[in-house]
Write a structure and sequence with these properties.
Layout: E1 2-6, H1 17-21, E2 27-30, H2 43-55, E3 59-64, H3 70-74, H4 80-95, E4 100-104, E5 115-119, E6 125-129, H5 131-141, H6 153-165, H7 168-179, H8 191-199, H9 206-227, E7 230-234, H10 252-261, E8 267-272, H11 273-277, H12 284-290, E9 295-300, E10 302-305, E11 311-314, H13 323-339, E12 348-351, H14 371-400
Parallel strand pairs: 1-2, 1-12, 2-3, 3-4, 4-7, 7-8, 8-9, 9-12
Antiparallel strand pairs: 5-6, 6-11, 10-11
């Protein structure tokens, strides 16, 4: 598997390529976050980022993300110009040798957490999603009365208690945490601004957004196939409706629909074990096995779930997902691709998120992407990959005798 590291670029990421080189990874996952959504990524801009990455001794392994404009998710008006811009950006990326493009179709928000620095038992902090805090935000801060039906009575009681005790600083901290998952150049909203944005989705159902995704794929996937690109959709994080916004990439059934909508190798999946792992019904090794031939990129991280739907980021090997089993499925798929003679047999992966540990408390970093925490995760994942690869080699040697 190809070891990669997410880098937000020289203007947004305090972690330098020089520091990343010390991790031992060979690939960089990056994007041009400074370009407004819907605008074309020019070849010159792409080439400049590629040259920066290569000067650091890396390859630009994956674009994460080439963003989908919100109007496309809404199905809002004449979208021909936005589709054309997306296709042109893809063509420019292909011309510069970038072949894997990760994107998501989450309405308005990206990953969502209610705490950015939840304390861990032995020191350090992690990202956490508390169901009752999310309920408090929706019901008592946004004033979404319809949200009451989305939560159990016990959760609503805890939410009301939190809201009664919360100070202005507590409420501001919760809003900031929820906004933190919005990537790159996305605007952050205050309560009034978020209400206005949510109003744009009034009346849209999961079926509507699924149809809008199908339309996007019909416009984009054939061009990606012609260019030799591999698109890979990122699952919803968390895999549940948020703020009344339907999520449509949350389960194995969702993934099957998306991949069948445009049944092409160019239409693939980013296997995010953390996003899907937050769903109680999702069996990650089984999902990896079922969709192995369409997995073009992997985010490897773990979560620990609570019965009420809350969850927190766990150490990469210590959460509810059997990470060893997932990696075994990915290695088996790589072996199958090599047997087919494919030149793209390696699946790029990155250690996703990570605990804030030791020196991380004093080192600036993009929220959710600490240096030491990710390095720990990388070391653990690297060890699993080496061990499984060695075991597979020994088995092959024994069978060849």
């Amino acid at each position: 598997m190809l070891e990669t590291w997410r880098w937000y670029g020289p203007d947004l990421d305090p972690i330098t390529l020089g520091s990343i080189a010390q991790t031992g990874v060979t690939g960089i996952v990056s994007a041009l976050h400074e370009i407004p959504y819907g605008a074309v990524w020019t070849r010159d801009e792409i080439a400049a980022r590629r040259q920066q990455i290569e000067a650091g001794g890396f390859s630009w392994a994956v674009v994460e993300s080439l963003p989908v404009h919100e109007r496309i998710k809404l199905g809002d008006g004449d979208l021909s110009g936005l589709f054309a811009s997306y296709r042109q950006s893809m063509a420019n990326l292909a011309a510069e040798g970038v072949q894997v493009i990760c994107y998501n179709f989450m309405p308005l928000l990206d990953w969502t957490r209610t705490e950015l620095a939840h304390p861990l038992p032995h020191g350090g902090t992690c990202l956490r999603f508390e169901t009752h805090r999310m309920a408090a935000f929706e019901i008592h801060m946004l004033g979404r009365e319809a949200a009451r039906d989305a939560y159990l009575r016990e959760t609503r009681v805890r939410a009301a208690d939190w809201a009664d005790r919360a100070t202005d600083a507590d409420r501001a901290e919760l809003l900031s945490a929820i906004m933190a998952g919005m990537p790159g150049a996305f605007d952050r909203y205050d309560i009034a601004g978020l209400r206005r944005q949510l109003a744009r989705y009034d009346g849209l159902t999961a079926a509507d957004i699924r149809a809008n995704l199908a339309r996007f794929l019909a416009e984009i996937v054939p061009a990606a196939a012609d260019l030799g690109l591999r698109l890979c959709i990122h699952p919803d994080d968390p895999p549940r409706d948020i703020l009344g916004l339907p999520r449509i990439v949350s389960s194995a059934e969702d993934i099957a629909f998306i991949l069948q909508t445009q049944d092409s190798p160019a239409n693939g999946l980013t296997l995010c074990t953390g996003s899907l792992g937050a769903g109680a019904e999702n069996d990650l090794p089984a999902i990896a096995r079922r969709f192995a031939d369409r997995i073009h990129f992997a985010h490897l991280r773990n979560v620990r779930k609570d019965p009420d739907g809350s969850f927190e980021e766990a150490a990469h090997l210590d959460g509810d997902t059997n990470m060893v089993a997932v990696i075994a499925e990915l290695l088996a798929e790589e072996a199958r691709r090599r047997d087919m003679g494919r030149t793209d047999a390696q699946i790029p992966f990155r250690p996703d998120h990570g605990h804030v540990l030791g020196p991380d408390h004093d080192l600036p970093a993009v929220v959710g992407y600490p240096y030491v925490g990710r390095l720990r995760g990388l070391a653990e994942l690297r060890g699993v990959i080496r061990a499984l690869s060695h075991t597979a080699y020994q088995s092959f040697e024994r069978s060849a005798r």
